[in-house]
Amino acid sequence: MSSIFNLDNPFFTGLNKIVDAFFLSIIFLITCIPIVTIGPALTALYYATAKSLRRDRGYVSKEYFKAFKMNFKQGLVTGLIVMLMTVILIVDWNYAKRLHGNLGVVLFTIFTALMVLLLFVSIYIFPILSRFKTKLGQLFKTAFFMSIRHLPSTILMVIIIAFFALLVYLIWIPILFTPALCALLISFLMERILKKYMPPKADEEEKGGVDEWYLE
Predict the structure, then answer these.
(1) Please, where are the H alpha helices in 171-206?
(2) SS3 of 201, please?
(3) Quick one: pLDDT at residue 189?
(4) Where are the alpha helices (DSSP H) in 32-100?
(5) Which residues lie closer than 8 Å to 183 by C-beta, 6 or more apart?
(6) Where are the transmembrane segments (predicted)?
(7) What is the mean pLDDT of residues 46-73?
(8) Considering the domain boundaries, does residue 25 fall inside one?
(9) Which bin fits 38, alpha (ψ -120 to 50), beta or left (φ > 0)?
């Protein structure tokens, strides 16, 4: 009987994960309200999901705001660049769609391909930002390189995002859970990739007790 009320049993552990996912999603949505803060919000969402929600390190709110503050400046600029590029490509794509003849087909194909590539880069860029310290230009280059090199995983992540986006489009209520759940599923693919670019423990300087949770 005592095992039923044990907070470490699978039922309570799962329930706690659901509550954390709900809480993390709400925090993410609130910090996204200004729109321009979507960059640091996405960075913090992935960081808190990978560290706290998945690996039980710290509290989701504490880890979220820690990453949000730490990556605010670069995340803000990165998010604005991605949004600007998205708007430009959508305008160009709609323009090409209305053109007739071979030129219209060529331009439509080019802008469609560019939109797909931007989506690929966007999936990687914020998780990379949450893990590595790098300059803005290198950040985009690294995201592009990883997305192409690990194309099968990239396509799977696109499918995951598309599924949750469609779910929210059809029934808006799941938006209270989907940001964290989507990030959690993506982390299972993303962490395997990011780990390949982390220095092995044996080659690193003494960390002085720092929790290297991302190498597990």
Answers:
(1) 178-195
(2) helix
(3) 96
(4) 38-48, 60-70, 72-98
(5) 45, 46, 49, 50, 53
(6) 22-49, 70-91, 103-129, 150-170
(7) 93
(8) yes
(9) alpha
Residue 97 in any domain: the answer is yes
Query: Could you give the C-alpha distances from 38 to 1, 30, 152, 196, in angstroms and in order?
Result: 47, 10, 26, 27
Residue 179 lies in a domain: yes
User: For the chain, what is the domain count?
Assistant: 1
| Domain span holding position 96 | 10-195
Lowest mean pLDDT among 49-63, 90-104, 153-167, 202-216: 202-216
Report which secondary-structure segment, H or E, holds 11: helix 10-31
What is the rounded CA–CA span in Å between residue 126 and residue 39? 7
User: Which segment of 39-48, 118-127, 173-182 scores lowest on mean pLDDT?
Assistant: 173-182
Predicted TM-score (pTM) of this structure:
0.88
Residue 136 is assigned to a structural domain of this protein: yes
Q: Which two tokens stand for residue 22?
A: 């709900």
- Mean pLDDT in residue range 3-7: 50
Q: What is the mean pLDDT of residues 196-214?
A: 62
Cα dist. 95→90, 104, 189 in Å?
8, 9, 36
